[in-house]
């Protein structure tokens, strides 16, 4: 974001770009404790929640990065297109997002947890 310029200014200095990058960072940081918690408990619902949250955050972040880099993000100089391909594949690996969400909801219903 420091090298690409628009109107003679690096695009990383524009507020709209900063907001998109901040949203991506927040999504990734939100997923981190879920992944660590799932690794500790290994409960199927925790794993499913961590998987869907982390995969969706990674996919959205990769898409945002490609959009902000523009066409150069698809070139061999940058690995962004590779990261998008990996994130897209991980979304459906080991259960679709819908199946993971269903697992989390079913676990909440079976435990009698009324927070849902």
Automatic annotation (TrEMBL):
GO terms for cellular component: cytoplasm. SUPFAM superfamilies: Acyl-CoA dehydrogenase C-terminal domain-like (SSF47203). Keywords: Flavoprotein, Oxidoreductase. GO terms for molecular function: acyl-CoA dehydrogenase activity. GO terms for biological process: fatty acid beta-oxidation using acyl-CoA dehydrogenase. It comes from the Bacteria. Pfam families: Acyl-CoA_dh_1 (PF00441). Residues 1-99 form the Acyl-CoA dehydrogenase/oxidase C-terminal domain. InterPro entries: Acyl-CoA_dehydrogenase (IPR050741), AcylCo_DH-like_C (IPR036250), AcylCo_DH/oxidase_C (IPR009075). This is Putative oxidoreductase. The lineage of its organism: Bacteria, Bacillati, Actinomycetota, Actinomycetes, Kitasatosporales.
